[in-house]
Every structure is written in C-alpha cells, then in structure tokens.
Amino acid sequence: MDISVFVPGHITGFFSIENNANPLKNGSCGAGFLVNRGVLTDISSCDTLEIEVNQGDYTVINEVLKILKIEKPVKITQDIQLPIGAGFGTSAASALGLAIALNEFFSLGYTLEECGQIAHRAEINLGSGLGDVIAQMGKGIVLRTKAGAPGIGEIKSFPDEEIIIATKTFGEIDTASVIQNPEYKKIISDAGLELKNRFVENPSIGNFLDFSFEFSEKTNLMSDEVSELIDYFNSLDDILGSSMAMLGNTVFAFASNRDVFKNMDIEGLNIYELDNIGIKYDKH
What is the CATH number for 275? Predict the structure, then answer.
C-alpha cells in the first residue's frame, strides 16, 4: 500500500504571536491564504528507512519521526513544490503531510486533528513556525481566531474560487530569528492583534489585502526590493492588492484574472490559484 498526502502552502498576511509554555497552545493569530501548490508526501513499503526530499533537509521529517517514535522500515518521499524559507509554510506542510501519511500507513489510530497537533509540536520544537499547521487545515483565506494547534486553536475559512495569486521570492528569512526576537515580537503582536480584531469585524478580500500591507509597513520587515515591487503592484488598476509573505522575503499579489500576471515582464514571477480544497490524500 502507498499513501499520498498533499498539503497546500500557506502565506500569512498579518499575525500576532501568542506564546505559551504548553506547545499545543503556543502559536499565533492572524490571517493568511492557501495556494494550490504545497508539499506532496508519499509513503511506501521498503526494507529500510529511506528518505528522499527534492529540496531542503530532513530536519522536519526527523522531528515528526521522533515524536511518533517511528523506527520501522518505510520509504518517505517529499516533493516540495514551493520555495523553502520564503514564507510559504513548507515546513508545516511537510510535517502535517508526513504525520497524516504515517498515521494512515501504520494504522496508528490518530484523528486528523491529532495529526495536526503532532505537526504543530514539530514546528514549535524547531522554531520554524507558529500558525501554519492549523491554517493548512482550512481552505481559501484562513483567519486564525485562537492561537494553538488544531483542536486547541480555532480558524475560520473564506473560500473564493476567483482569486489568482502571483509571488516573487527574493530569498529566505530565518523565521526563528524574528519570532524569537523580543523587540520584533512586541511590534508584530501589537500590530497583528489590532488588525486581526478589525478583520474579524469585517472579513473580506479587500480588507485582508489592505491589512496585510498595513502590517508589512508597521513591522518594518520589508527589504527595499520587496517594498518596490509591492508599490508597483499596488499602483496597477488590475491588481486587487499586494503585500509581503510573513515571514519570507516574498511578495504576493492578488488578481481576478490570470492574464494580468501572464502579461507582466517580471523575472521569477510564479502564478498560483487560491486553494479552496485543502488537504488531499489517496491510498493506492
């Protein structure tokens, strides 16, 4: 038996950090969106423990194996379809997809929520993320209203099938270096909490984009090249809005029509769709 699990990538627009001594309550609130590329995890029978990943290292995989106490022979293959370290939630998608796939393959008996809690613990242990896992349990635009792992935190999903997303990545940002810096944490949390409360009152795509841009300005995390491209996108009539992926040296922009982005002469521009389906898995 082979198991395949796809977990969509997740980009955060604005967030607040809510630390807690309990790793399952440690997390973030805020809003982001899912894209129709992510991490595809395949599990199959093997005589030894074998791991193949197309980019990055095995750190997240090893952490999930450790939490689940898996030492049995199995082949783990991961296709990471997005840039790593660039604000796409790839480590969370890797951890979540692997937890779900191993649970199915070895009949471990965990619920989907519990698999999410395992992935969230892996993220917290590694300092690689706070809110991506629970968001990746949702669809479309996802508002995280209560911090924590799936089953502890709370989300609301706002699917919208018409949204086309373009991104350009200028490099990596070390998530841990930001979310563990006391000065950044206060600036981020103050701005993110205010914007989350405003978004709860009136959730819309326009407000998500406006608030994300406001957050990127208030937190001063933008590089010059990111800021210039955001300003360019926001100056165009056919663009719904643009901001920075949190946390990544990446720009995202929304439009209602794919041709808007196809006609742009911007090197390294990637075009996606809003993912309104969420996690997909298959036994074969």
Answer: 3.30.230.120
